[in-house]
Fold these 2 entries.
Entry 1:
Amino acid sequence: MTSDELADIFLSGDDYYALRKVRYYLKTHTRKELFQELLTPAMYRIGQLWQENVISVADEHLATAICDFVISATDNRSQAEKEAAGKVMIMGFEGEDHYLGLKMVACVFREHGWVVYDMGPNLPLVHAMDAAEQLKPDVIGLSAALVSRLPLVKSYMDAFGILDPKPAVLIGGRAVTLADLSDAKAEGAVVLESLETLQNWIRSRKERNHETSASL
Ligand code: B12
């Protein structure tokens, strides 16, 4: 199945057929491949058709809802309970409504045994800080689809910088592939363009932690 075919199934409104096709794909592929090779390009295609006025806003909403459904229906929540490799809190910047990427990020962390607090999109900083003070996450992940959200990066970084213990901050989403985030990197943020780079980051963090505990 190609991502264009899946986009057509989303647009047809047949949610169970979409789920059947995705489950079949998962027999021979990983969930990261499902997200990266199939669901993300299918949704980018939906965005293109929407931009070109080939499909309506209602069509785009329907496709988004079905994509959301298949991500949830194929999520594996049992892994995190077994390992507890770390605690991550993820959210979209204030004013950011796109959240399917966040759901995928949550799944990738869970597959690596992390406990995930997915706060969804559009979380104002004051509420993000309250939650972080209570939950004390090892990692905070931020998502931005719109470049117009990126001026907020500095205020989020400054605020998270005073947390104790200080979490690692990851920034991802479509916007980071379109803009220069060298300022955020200089302030210590890790900018990740894809789920592939996220997975590499999670693995190398695990290796670093093993080395540290071995040398103690
Ligand atoms: C669905 C959708 C919506 C839905 C979102 C609902 C939802 N549940 O998310 C709704 C209708 C709300 C919406 C609204 C708008 N949207 Co919209 N939307 C889309 C669409 C079609 C799909 C988004 C999506 O889910 N993509 C799939 C996900 C999986 O991709 P992703 O977010 O990039 O995430 C991947 C990576 O970036 C990464 N990632 C994401 N976050 C993170 C975080 C970390 C830490 C890491 C490591 C990785 C990571 O992981 C994912 C895996 O591949 C896109 C098209 C597109 N190209 O994405 C347009 C699009 C993003 N929207 C667009 C626009 C213009 C808007 C609106 C301004 C429209 C309007 N006039 O109101 C509003 C803005 C709302 C707001 N304030 O945020 C434009 C943006 C253009 C631009 N100039 O930047 C796009 C590109 C469509 C287009 N071609 O014109 N939208």
Entry 2:
Amino acid sequence: MGDYPKVEVNEGLVSIIVPDLSKYTVGSRPEPAHAPVFYNPRMEVNRSLSVAILNAYLSYMDKSGITVCEPLSGTGVRAIRYAREVHGVSRVVANDISERAYELAKLNVERNGLNDVVTVYRDDANNVLLRIAREGGCDFVDIDPFGSPQPFIENSLRAIKDRGLLCVTATDVGVLAGKYPLKCIRRYGALPRKFPFRLEVGIRILIYAIARYALAMDYGIKPLISFMDGHYYRVCVVVFKDRAYAIETLRSLGYAYYSPGTLSRGFIQGFPIPSASKFELSGPLWIDYPWDAEFVVNYMMREVRDYFSERARELASMLREESLAPNVPYTLTTEVSREVGREVSINEVINIIRGLGYTAYKTHFHPKGFRTDADLLRVRDVVKQLLRLK
Ligand SMILES: C[S@@+](CC[C@H](N)C(=O)[O-])C[C@H]1O[C@@H](n2cnc3c(N)ncnc32)[C@H](O)[C@@H]1O
């Protein structure tokens, strides 16, 4: 196995060997992408929540004895955690194109005594997915690439069985959320806009991108959970290999609109061509709920473990709260507190809105963001009046 500095780390319930990141830095900051095999300790949040999501999916769908495919495995940590921490996994296919990653993942599987459950391959991810599809499919595909998951979505949908789970990570948040609109159009076939809720536009374009491939194959999708954590989006959807469900999915596609003058925002149905609108539009994108509140509240939360990092547990609680909010794009406190002359805190704004008899929930997408069914111009007036009286 390649000769480079390595260390042992504990994550979740497993112990693995990874490159010694203190030797791969930019300035004084560890840079996982510079190491011979990729391991980002910050992605523990993504991996831990994915363990909870897969455990929850198994009870939600009443399944066991499932096959998992993780075709971009790096050190194998994620595949190994699924094998060790998810109850009801019989087989895990791990894979990486890199020789060093393949060697390290094999070592890590062996060290954790999981040779009977996890098989490691060295191949291109798309080859592995197509092979799995030919061999009858798997129940769960996890796509965790560098950057965009786009090159792997189509074959993931082929590899997944009916009612299987597909989770994808996207680290190209900048592209999806409007920093490079033309790149987003090329990569995802959708126009992002720099609306105040652009981080939500981005994740909805990502769900749309999965739906688009699914629809072409006469499949439908249903998001169980979607979230953002710092530099990446994570989306998990159930895939229904059923034409009736594809027709249903089509109804969940459309555009987001926003009007700076009235602060109004929302979604309009229509794909690929929306009805005429007086607003600026962004999309096509997913306009239905990006999560299933029942799944998040009654299934996922039960699977969040004490041994997950504090950040993973905190994010899960935020998602639990937010999944109960109305399906309206979030608003920023700065939008309703303009002209007040001082920064109004998110808690103040939420209390004001609730005092008016409307619902308001914080969003995990932005520290100043909240979701509400209230008329935002009225909220802005009330915020102004109340704060002037103070
Ligand atoms: C972000 S890392 C994976 C991290 C890992 N899933 C985890 O949770 O730690 C992406 C991995 O994909 C591998 N990779 C890139 N292109 C690939 C391809 N076409 N087929 C298979 N593996 C690929 C890289 O070598 C790298 O190890």
